[in-house]
Known about the structure:
Radius of gyration: 20 Å
CATH class of the domain at 1-144 and 298-335: Alpha Beta
Strand order of the largest sheet: 3-2-1-4-5-6-9
Mean pLDDT: 87
Helix content: 40-55%
Low-confidence stretches: 311-321, 326-330
Structural class: alpha/beta
Largest sheet: 7 strands, parallel
CATH topology of the domain at 1-144 and 298-335: Rossmann fold
CATH superfamily of the domain at 1-144 and 298-335: NAD(P)-binding Rossmann-like Domain
Oligomer: single chain
Amino acid sequence: MILVTGATGRVGEQVVRTLRGLKLPTRALVRKGSEYYWLNDTGCQFFFGDLRDPQSLSRALRDCQYLVVCSGVRLEERHNNHTSVTIDGHRALFEAAKKRGVQRVSLVSCAGVDRGYEIPSFLARKASEDLLIHSGLDYAILRAPLHEHHFLELAWQLHDKGKVWLPGPATGTLNPLPTRDLAMMAVASLDLATARNQTLTVGGLETMTAQAAVEAACATVGVDPSGARPLPSAAAALGSRIGRPVRRYANRLAEGRMWFTEDFSLDGAEVAARFKLPGTPWSQALADTNATLTLMRDPAQRDKRMVHPQFYATVYEPGTARLADLPDGPPPRRD
């Protein structure tokens, strides 16, 4: 059995679908109140738990031989932040995995966390890596760059609002990595000999500037990229000085600015060869993901794609019921 944390996220969902496509027994750790039911068509198991609840982690790992960690925090909240989840939550997860005899852990981390950037998300992810390295578990750590969702979100904001602020000058270079490819790398690293106890920086086939990645996403969505402009550095700096009311947004902006400013390029072909994967062209990744995003923006099409959100999940055919007519899952944790 393979446990996947962060299974309802963009990368986690692709990991679950990759594992189930290989007919491997897969269990998804999902929070109460999350839209886990979009994974019902995979036939995976669900375990309702929380990284902030160590007892639930031990139970979720019962009979699991492998663990894929895709969990993270996009926008911090008072009780859901980089300390409580990315550091303390992962510490509890790795301790439980050690006690349960997990054979290998694949951790999806972030490129650049070893560069000393004073950014909360980078510091927390590096701390999480260190916890895994010193846990005594066999591991593979994948430091990944931005993926297609980040750029498509900006393009759709531009489509809806007529303009969008980019977090930085967009001169930074990177190899954006399709979520599907990252998922395959995470799965492959569970038994890849050359990934054992290694920290690997990964990326997509193509090197480009953040500006080029944005323009490609805009072309996919069908919107003029001229309305996408860099946020002035003075405005970005102001957010970090105001303090707590906007600190969580300022932290997220600081991370985005780093991605849009610094050099994160690498040899994408070499990465693909290491994992024995063909790699997905950037334009294809954008088109495939955008097709799903477009469908999900249409309420009628969303209902057709929806699968039964029943508490004890069973596999249902998409489109057999309307979301509004179905019972709610367990309520989210509130503390």
